[in-house]
Amino acid sequence: MSIPETSQLAGRKRARAKGWASTIARFLVVMVTTYLGLLAVTFFIGRVIPIDPVLAVLGDRAPAHVVERVREEMGLNRPLYVQFFYYIRDALTGNFGTSVLTTNPVMADIRRVFPATIELATVGTLIGSLVGVPLGVLAAVKRGSIADQVVRVVGLIGYSVPIFWLALLALLFFYAKLQWIAFPGRIDIVYEYSFTPVTGFYLLDSLWQGQWDVFVDVFRHIILPAGLLGYFSLAYISRMTRSFMLNELSQEYIVAARAKGLSETRIIWGHALRNAAVPLVTVIALSYAGLLEGSVLIETVFSWPGLGLYITNSLQNADMNAVLGGTIIIGSVFIAINILSDLLYRTLDPRTRVR
């Protein structure tokens, strides 16, 4: 290789490295700015709501001097900007205070209940993806047909009907009438004290420990709430898959592939879907984040001991430390998944790579 070619190659590598560094720096700025905005919103919500955190701890009949002393200990007598500084410091270290409802550190409670929400959202996303993507492909390939109309109506129902109403109907039909599923909750009381979870993900733990009876019981508890979340996710994923596939099927390379005599199956699944899968990854990731933060109603209806139910119970008992701590955790996860999906999109799509 000649000296000019070597110099050009080194220059391209430096430009590529500089571009990646700029992209990562931009993502870090966006992430930090968004997270600070999340902290600011939760902080001021905690200050403007008509709930006194001191009275929530002590009760309404506490003596005035005790109220003032506790208010000073909690730092609520300081200026707002000083309180905000300490709020950011505590949030970054995972210190969200103590829950009034459970008397445990909020972060300890979140570590206990969040795996249940992650497991529920993960199973729901798997159901939504495994069913939604083929339905979206079918609707795009059969555009304008009865199959396309059925898929669009199914998606429209998933968008339009309140999920808590569907949950109540499903509970009435599948549990009360047919008795196909287990009682609301995460695990039967028979196994609650004999089964020792390790990771907090009951399906994985029961498989790892070889307790098949526990696995079946956990599956019977999770399948209906996860199926409803999966249906909600399916509505979004199938619609976006249909849109992406219609765009790909209209491209010139599809016409060229058909002219070469390739089978329709290979064209659809090997070429069109392969290119549509790049933006579809972002759609599925955002759908997963949406299920993590939007499973509150499902967890409430099915008594699922996850973060959504924890926040709901805390809100009903004016436990603002738990409410704000849970909100920050969910918001942080949503921000992280959003940014990671964007980075993954840039990595998978050659057209967005830094040159």
TrEMBL record:
Main location group: membrane
Domain ABC transmembrane type-1, chain residue ranges per copy: 114-345
InterPro entries per record: BPD_transp_1_N, MetI-like, MetI-like_sf
Pfam families in the record: BPD_transp_1, BPD_transp_1_N
SUPFAM superfamilies membership: MetI-like
Membrane topology note: Multi-pass membrane protein
Alphabetized Gene3D superfamilies for the sequence: MetI-like
UniProt keyword terms in alphabetical order: Cell membrane, Membrane, Transmembrane, Transmembrane helix, Transport
Transmembrane segments: 20-45, 120-141, 153-176, 218-237, 276-302, 322-345
CDD domains assigned to the protein according to its UniProt record, in alphabetical order: TM_PBP2
Location in or out of the cell: Cell membrane
Similarity comment text for this entry: Belongs to the binding-protein-dependent transport system permease family.
Protein name per UniProt: Peptide/nickel transport system permease protein
Organism for this UniProt entry: Pararhizobium capsulatum DSM 1112
Lineage summary: Bacteria, Pseudomonadati, Pseudomonadota, Alphaproteobacteria, Hyphomicrobiales
